[in-house]
Amino acid sequence: MDDLRNLFLEALQQETNYLQKELPHHLYAIINGYLQGGGKRLRPCLLLMCAQAAGGDVEKALPAALAVEEFHTWTLIHDDVIDHDDFRRGNPTGHILGCRLGKEAWKLSDNVAADYGVSAAILAGDSLQARATEKLFELKDFQPQTIMSLISNMTGLLTQDLLAGEQLDVEMSHMSWNDVTEDTVMTMINGKTGALLKYCAEAGAALGMDTPIEACPTALQLGQFARNCGIAFQLQDDILGIYGEEAKLGKPIGSDIREGKRTLLACRALAMLSETDAAKLRSILGRADITQDDITTVRNLMNGKPLESVQNDAESYVQTALSCLEMALPASPCRDALHDFAMKMTKRVM
Amino acid sequence: MDDLRNLFLEALQQETNYLQKELPHHLYAIINGYLQGGGKRLRPCLLLMCAQAAGGDVEKALPAALAVEEFHTWTLIHDDVIDHDDFRRGNPTGHILGCRLGKEAWKLSDNVAADYGVSAAILAGDSLQARATEKLFELKDFQPQTIMSLISNMTGLLTQDLLAGEQLDVEMSHMSWNDVTEDTVMTMINGKTGALLKYCAEAGAALGMDTPIEACPTALQLGQFARNCGIAFQLQDDILGIYGEEAKLGKPIGSDIREGKRTLLACRALAMLSETDAAKLRSILGRADITQDDITTVRNLMNGKPLESVQNDAESYVQTALSCLEMALPASPCRDALHDFAMKMTKRVM
C-alpha cells in the first residue's frame, strides 16, 4: 500500500499545481490545505489496490484515485462548515482558513471575516465537487462505457447516498435520544462512510477489467467488501472519538461527547445501562460545558458490555468484508493486500 | 418560446416527482421551492430554442433543459446562503425554508433552527449540483461523444467560470470602491451570468447537430450570442435593482443599495459624478440603515449620464449578440425567435 500511496502523492502534487493556476486564490488555498493535509489516503489507495487486484494498470487508474480523494475532500469542507469544526488533522478547516485570509486581504472585522470564511468554504467545496467529476474525463485507454459508468455512479448513487447520510446525521443531532434508533445510525453510517468506500472499490475494479461497474460482478463484490470495511471503519472511529488520544487524532477528545454525536456506541450504552446510569449518560452527552471528569464518567459508563458489543459488531463487519473479498477474487498477493486493508479497520488507533 | 416553456414545465413536473421520491424530505422541499417558484425559465428555453434552430428535436433535448435549470438552481440556493437573502421571487429562500422546517420538526430555538436551515440549504445545493450532471445521462439517441462533451463542459469550464465569478462578487463586496474597476465587474458578470447562458446555447446547438460542442462552430457562435445576451441581461438586472418596482421583481428595492452591490452602474456613476456627488453616493451605498430618501438620492445621482451610458453598453452587448447570431445561422423562424430573445434582455421590467 505504501508504493501506491507514493504514486498517488506524486500525482496529487501535479493536480494541486493545476488547481493553483485555475482557481481563485482563496478557494485554492482552502482546497490545498485539505489535500496536502495528510490523512491516510484510504480511498485512493483502495481504488488503486482494487484496480491492481482486478488485473489493471495502476498508473492508468490515477485520475480516478485523484477524483475520489477530491470527492472525499469537498464533502469534508462542507461537513466542517455544517459541524462548525475549527480543526481537522490539526490544521484549520476551510471556513477558519477563509476567515484568516479575509482578514489579511481586507482587514475585515471578526464577524465579517467569519462570514467570508463560510462563503469561501462553500464555494471551495462546490468547485471541488465539479472538479472530482471532471477529473474522470482524464482517464485514457478505457472504453467510453467504462468511463461513463464511473461518472454516472459518482454524480448519481454515490453523491445522493452520501448526502442522504450527511442530512440524516444533521437531523439526528436534533432528535431526542429516544427517537434515535440503531437502524437510523447504521443507515447514516452506510451513507456517510460506506458509500464512498464502495464506490472506490467498484471504480478501481471496473477500471482494472475495463468494464462498466454494473456489468462487472468483481466490481460489485469488491464494492460490498469495501462498504463493510467502511462501516467497520466508522464504528472504530466512533470508539476512538471516546477512547482515542488527542495527539494522534488531531482533534480534541470530548468533542463527540460535547456534540452528543449519535453513534452506535452511545445508542448501545443507553440501551444496556441501568435507568439511572442511562440518565446520567444522557445528561452529559450534548452538553457544551463538559469537564474532564465528565469525559471520564462517559468512558466508564460505555466501558464493558456496550464497548465490547460494538467492537464485536465492527469485527463482524470485517468478517463479512473478508467473505465478499474471497468471493470476488482468487488468492493472490493483491488479495492479501486487501485482506490487510480490512484488518486495519478495527486495529487502528488514529 | 411559450410552447417550449410549456413543454419544459411538463418535464419539470416529472422531475420534481422523481426528486420527491429520491431525496431526504427537507432537501427536496428546499429544491422544489426554487424549481416550482416560477422564474422566466430563460435558460432551459434558450437551450431548447438553440436545439431547434440547429435542426434538432426539442423533445430529445429535454433532459439537458432540466439539467441547466437544476444547475442554475443549485447556484441560487448557495448564493442566497452567501448573500443572506431571505426571499427570492417572493418565496422564502432555501435556508429560510430549512429554518422553518427545522422548527416544525424538532421545535428548535431560533438560533439552532437558523443554523439547521443553512446546513440543509448547503446540502440541498450539493445534491442538486450532482443531479444536474446526472440528468445529462438521460439524453438518448445522441452519439456518446456529444453527451460526454455536454457533461465535461458542465463539470469543467462552466462550473469553474461560474464559481470564479461568484467568488469575485464576494471579494469585491469587501473591497473599497477605489479598488473596484469596471474590468473586474465585467469579469464577474461574465462568470456569474454569461457562462451559464453560453453553456445553454452551446449544449442546445450541439444536441441539435449531434456533435460535441468543441467540434461544432454553430454551437460556439451561438455560445457567444448567448454570453453577450447574458451580460446585457445582468446590466439590465442591475438597473432594475435601482429603478425597478418591488412588486414585479419579488425582492425589496433598495437591497442592492443597502448591500453596496458592485455594479457597472455604480462604478460608472462614481467615475462620472463630481467629487462632492460621488462622495455622497459612496456614503449611501452599503449602509444598512438607508431611508426612502436615500434611495431617491441614489436614483437621482445615477440618473442622466451614468444610467444612459450603461443602457448604451447593454444595447451594444445585444447588438454584438445579434451579429454572432447572424454568423451562426441562416435566416429562419427559429433565428427570429432567438433575435426576439436577445431584444428582450434590455426591454424587460422584471
Structure notes:
The structure is a homodimer of 350-residue chains. By secondary structure, the first copy, chain A, is mainly alpha-helical. Chain A has 2 domains: 1-141, Orthogonal Bundle (Farnesyl Diphosphate Synthase), CATH 1.10.600; 147-350, Farnesyl Diphosphate Synthase (Orthogonal Bundle). Chain A contains 16 helices and 2 strands. Chain A has helices spanning 2-22, 25-35, 42-53, 58-83, 94-106, 110-135, 144-174, 182-209, 217-243, 246-249, 255-258, 264-272, 275-284, 292-302, 305-328, 333-347, and strands at residues 87-88, 91-92. A two-stranded antiparallel ribbon of chain A has the order 1-2. In chain A, a hairpin with a 2-residue loop joins strand 1 (87-88) and strand 2 (91-92). The mean pLDDT of chain A is 95.
Compile the SSE list and pairings.
Two copies of one chain form a homodimer.
Chain A lengths: L1 H21 L2 H11 L6 H12 L4 H26 L3 E2 L2 E2 L1 H13 L3 H26 L8 H31 L7 H28 L7 H27 L2 H4 L5 H4 L5 H9 L2 H10 L7 H11 L2 H24 L4 H15 L3
Antiparallel strand pairs in A: 1-2
Helix pairs in contact in A: 1-2, 1-4, 2-4, 2-5, 2-6, 3-4, 3-8, 3-16, 4-6, 4-8, 5-6, 7-8, 8-9, 9-15, 9-16, 12-13, 12-15, 13-14, 15-16
